[in-house]
Amino acid sequence: MSVTVDSASAKDSRPRRWLRGPRPQAVPVLVARLGVLVGLFDVAGGIFPRFRHSALHSAMQVLPGTVGPFAAALALGSGVLLLLLAHGLRRGKRRAWRAAVVLLPIGAAAQFVHRHSVLGVLIPVLLLALLLRHRDQFRALPDPRGRWWALANFLVLAPVSVGLGLVVVSAHPGPAVGVPSLTERLRHVLYGLFGMEGPVDYTGYTSWTVGFSLGALGLITALTTAYLAFRPEHPVARLSADDEERLRGLLARHGSRDSLGRFALRRDKAVVFSPSGKSAVCYRVVSGVMLASGDPIGDVEAWPGAIERFMAEAKAHSWTPAVMGCSRTGGEVWTRESGLDALELGDEALVDVADFSLSGRAMRNVRQMVKRIERAGYETKVRRVRDVDADELARIRRAAEDWRGTDTERGFSMALGRIGDPADADCLIATAHRPDEVPGPYGDLKAILHFVPWGEDGVSLDLMRRDRAADPGMNELLIVAALHAATGLGIARVSLNFAMFRSALARGEQLGAGPVSRAWRSLLVFLSRWFQIESLYKFNAKFRPRWEPRFVIFRSTNDLPRIGLAAMRAEGFVNFGVPGIVRRVVRGPRDCAHGGQAVAYVTSMKAGNSVSAGNHTKTEPLLAVDHQH
Q: Tell me: the pLDDT tens digits for 452-509?
């Protein structure tokens, strides 16, 4: 009896669940999709004449002549704006919700007047009801923004408006006077976007419909660009002096746990602290992804508080949370406290100074290379930044910038982004010199390695730079010199480069590896023609390190492509900003003194800077390989 009742109640509950509508968490995605549908419907209805044939068309002719063309323009404009708002609605943005609530009834009214379609009114009304019922799902705060968004909006919306304008002009071949050419239609569009009459003429009210539609597209482009240009700026968060001081205090007490901890002091990152102030998570927002790097800073027991603040901030702005390069311990805490998932990204090469030696057959190649370079007349110096005089430090800083080879500094998760700052006096610099040559603009300097502190007895490699005219093997020379000088500087451990997919390469080359492991390794070797995957692994393996895995933390596998793109933008491999030539024109010739850098940036993604070439940060060699050496 009880089973029958339970079964009946289960059946009765199904329609009730359906009547309740979608799950609240799924509403933003559903609304965004319906918004795209309504927007496309409005755009099509405002452009194509056949969409407005209906039984009511003749009855509506009693309205004033400008009502129909004005309604067509209004439908087209509201459709374009709904398409622009779809991404914000999907992310639950409050401002996108407010704009959609205003646009939907306007678009529905325009559809009814212009097309006389009940369906064209019903769908927007249902979407409006859904927005009003689930308004609590649209509370996300605005993203950080700057004035460049106005330029980006204009560069995107202007060609879209021209394209739609050509469709509008071409969609009325019957009422057109004569057969206008493509050039005449394009001129008519450009004139119409500015509210002027063009060379194409139409019979009846069609000229009003086309003119109002083109004027609406031009007005939308102008108003949205002006709004983005003159609205109050909400700048991207940056590390303040107080935040940096608090982080340095946490690193002084707990910095020995994570080799990437010092990179949290990049000043283009923001930070959230735990309620107790004993831990912190540093991050940057890129393309809607709230990207943290490494482990949380501070006391492990206080990590959950910082992670909770991080997740709350991501939820408040509807950002996608992600972490790049955390350790195994950090990954366990992140997944336990936040409900996120983890994926092994690669391995970090760590060298214990006490165990390092150039003796033995395994180190023969490195030993021979170092001896050959030393016989060529190269000398090395390994010092703390505070021990380098100001003039030499200025030359080192200038050389590091000029030898960079790209327009922008690369690195985020494993790069400090500066050299010689007074606050970083405890950093380590290894330099290679050739005193028997005629001094150049940087004296006898030929190569640079920069390390950041890792607790009290360790350093972590930050960047590698060298003069491209110098002999190959500069990096090997300086790494060996730094390891030999480490004991005298109180250093017991050194973190070298990060090797992407290192474990997959190692498993695939082992005796008895299965077909899946071998196939995966073969794919990685093939990709190494363009990305430094295998070469970076082999370079690190020269120094017989121990490998420590690093992980990426993510919410859903669907987010991985977006996180990957955001990480590449943060690391400087992909740049959607203002082109370098524009920046150089704006800044003037003084900032263009590093001749050829624009060309180097274009070619670096294809031919790149290998580990042997040596101009990269800790993570920079992930892209491209130079086959010269």
A: 999 999 999 998 998 888 888 899 999 999 999 999 999 999 999 888 888 888 888 8
For residue 150 the two structure tokens come to: 């106005």
Question: How many Cβ atoms are within 10 Å of 11's Cβ, its own excluded?
Answer: 9
Distances (CA, A) of 221 to 25, 72, 214: 33, 17, 11
**CA-based nearest residue to 463, from 545, 557, 397, 559:** 397
Q: Which residues pair with 445 in a beta bridge?
A: 433
Average pLDDT on 538-564 reads 91
Amino acid at 203: T
Per the listing, tokens 């919306």 go with 157
- What distance, in Å, lies between the first and last C-alpha atoms of the chain? 82
| Cβ atoms within 10 Å of 215's Cβ, excluding its own | 17
pLDDT at 619: 52
CA atoms within 13 A on the CB side of 79: 25
Q: Which H, E and C letters describe 293-351, residue by residue?
A: ECCCEECHHHHHHHHHHHHHHHHHHCCEEEEEEECHHHHHHHHHHHCCEEEEEEEEEEE
pLDDT tens per residue across span 90-99: 888 888 888 8
Q: How far apart are CA 606 and CA 621, in angstroms?
A: 12
More confident residue, 583 or 566: 566
Alpha-carbon distances of 282 from 293, 317, 324, 412, 435, rounded to whole Å: 7, 16, 11, 11, 42
Q: Which residues are CB-neighbours of 1 under 8 A, at least 6 positions away?
A: none
The pairing of beta strand 289-293 with beta strand 546-554: unpaired
3-state SS, one letter per residue, for 108-141: HHHHHHHHCCHHHHHHHHHHHHHHHHCHHHCCEC
Contact 50, 21 (CB under 8 A): no
Supply the DSSP string of 3-69, one letter for each residue: HHHHHHHHHHHHHHHHHT-S-GGGHHHHHHHHHHHHHHHHHHHHH-GGGG--TTTTGGGGS-TTHHH
- Please state, in angstroms and as integers, the Cα–Cα distance from residue 364 to each residue in 342, 494, 516, following that order: 38, 21, 33
Q: What is the mean pLDDT of the chain?
A: 79
Q: 210 near 172, Cβ under 8 Å?
A: yes
Cβ proximity of 259 and 454 under 8 Å? yes
Q: How many CA atoms lie within 13 A of 265 on its CB side?
A: 26
Residue 179 DSSP symbol: -
DSSP 202-221: BSTTHHHHHHHHHHHHHHHH
Which whole-number Å values give the CA distances from 329 to 335, 421, 456, in the listed order? 10, 31, 21
The answer to whether residues 175 and 204 touch, using CB atoms and an 8 Å cutoff, is yes
Provide the β-strand partners of residue 431.
381, 448
Alpha-carbon torsion, ordered 142, 143, 149, 154, to 10 deg: -50
- Contacts of residue 49, Cβ cutoff 8 Å, sequence gap at least 6: 171, 172
Instruction: State the chain's maximal CA–CA distance in angstroms.
Output: 100
Place of tokens 């493509």: 182
Residue showing tokens 């609530």: 101
- Tokens describing residue 173: 């071949």
Q: Which of 297, 300, 266, 302 is nearest to 284 (CA)?
A: 266
DSSP letter, residue 1: -
The region of weakest confidence among 155-159, 176-180, 464-468 is 176-180
3-state class of 290 per DSSP? strand
